[in-house]
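Submission checklist for the structure archive. All mandatory fields must be present; incomplete records are returned to the submitter.

[x] Identifier: Isochorismatase
[x] Organism: Acidocella aquatica
[x] Residue count: 196
[x] Sequence attached
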Amino acid sequence: MTQTALLVIDAQNIYAAADSPLCVPGIGASLANINALIRAFGAAGRPVVYIRHVHRADGRDAGRMFDFGGVAEPVSFVEGSVEAEYIPGLLQVPGGLHVIKRRYSSFEGTELEAILRSLGADGVVICGYMTNFCCDSTARAAHDRDYFVDFIADATGAPDLSENFLQKNIIEAVSTTLNAGFARVKSTSDYLAEMG
């Protein structure tokens, strides 16, 4: 019998706050889709794993996260800060599992794989933020670990990268690449219809 777990990645305030440099345009739509997936998984008794990106304030656990180009930037996602907490509108299901990560991939340095193995999961469904960083990295890492991966494109989001490369372009680019060899890319409505 197969088991699929929903990975809710980084549904955190830093992406919802209007004054945040990482604010996701129109986040209400993607959050509604995330909540629809959570609700369906909860109702079906399937596992929901909530994942948050968190760092110590002094940055000792950040590695190259904030100096990837050789110039240090301020550490964000600081533990205990409002920006690192879940978005208030995020649906929480009883029995939901929680994982803290410190890198883009939800597998890197976390207990996620041990949790999935203990659940007997051979598949993951990915939603959350940001499409092109943590969701993409986690989808690729899951594929490399031989999980079946469903990437729910309209249940992800990202800040615009420039006035010529908007969130819709980011989602399309990531989805096209993942669909070519890493994951099945679906819409929330299509995935929920398949769940029955």
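[x] Structure attached
Curator remark: DSSP finds five helices and six strands in the chain. Residues 23 and 92 are 22 Å apart (CA to CA).
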